[in-house]
Design brief:
CATH class: Alpha Beta
Strand content: 15-25%
CATH superfamily: DHBP synthase
Shape: globular
Order of helices and strands: EHEEHEHHEEHEHHEEEH
CATH architecture: Alpha-Beta Complex
Distance between the termini: 42 Å
CATH topology: DHBP synthase
Radius of gyration: 16 Å
Number of domains: 1
Largest sheet: 10 strands, mixed
Number of strands: 10
Length: 216
């Protein structure tokens, strides 16, 4: 099913239903500031369902969307000096940071090979509002089939995953059609020196202009 998710009123009306769906192990398709995503709560049940839908290895990690820096820290994630500088300059926004910590509070399977968990404070107004209402992070992966482009809108998400939508596993939040926006920039902050993993919506030069020596 597709649920309207464009205005604050629509987000607020959808929030109780979305929360119940996620807490029952369901998945959502939703707009972000970059592309449409697929997500779950950060639980083993939700992660298993998301891996099945995407057709990807069950232990390959997903990133987390949060609604505040406090939500990241509340989950036990640790921001070093470089991470704090980039957070102050670019969060909320299309910057994903790989952070250490979270042991015992987040599933270990979210942790990548570098030992951290990828997290982004989304600047999408509706998703930030929804996640704040939930009070916990939502996982995120692009809404696409393996090797294919991300869905630009809710209708395309439904087209890509018809069985999951028809079966009630996937609830699609309709925030309109998104433009051709690059994915988020991804920076590894697990070590003493940050490392650029993917240059996306925020170019390396912009990172360096904003945070100087704390940039990768």
């Amino acid at each position: 099913m597709i649920v309207p998710f464009g205005t604050d009123a629509e987000v607020d009306a959808a929030a109780p239903r979305v929360a119940a769906h996620l807490r029952g192990g369901g998945l959502i398709g939703y707009p972000t500031e970059t592309v449409y995503g697929l997500g779950s709560l950060a639980t083993d049940e939700g992660l298993d369902a998301l891996a099945r839908l995407k057709g990807r290895p069950p232990r390959k990690p997903f990133l987390l969307l949060i609604a505040s820096r406090e939500m990241a820290e509340g989950a036990g994630l640790v921001l070093n000096a470089a991470a704090r500088a980039m957070v102050e300059a670019f969060w909320p926004g299309p910057l994903t940071l790989v952070l250490p910590g979270g042991e015992g509070r987040l599933p270990a399977r979210l942790r990548g090979a570098e030992g951290g968990i990828a997290v982004r404070h989304t600047s999408h107004r509706g998703m930030a509002r929804l996640i704040a209402r939930l009070g916990e992070p939502v996982t995120s992966t692009s809404a696409n089939l393996p090797g294919g482009p991300p869905a630009p809108g809710a209708g395309k998400v439904e087209e890509l995953f018809p069985a999951a939508v028809a079966g009630g596993v996937l609830l699609v939040l309709d925030g309109g059609v998104l433009g051709n926006v690059p994915p988020s920039t991804l920076v590894d902050c697990t070590g003493p020196v940050p490392a650029l993993i993917r240059e996306g919506a925020i170019p390396r030069d912009e990172l360096r202009r904003a945070v100087g020596r704390f940039a990768p």
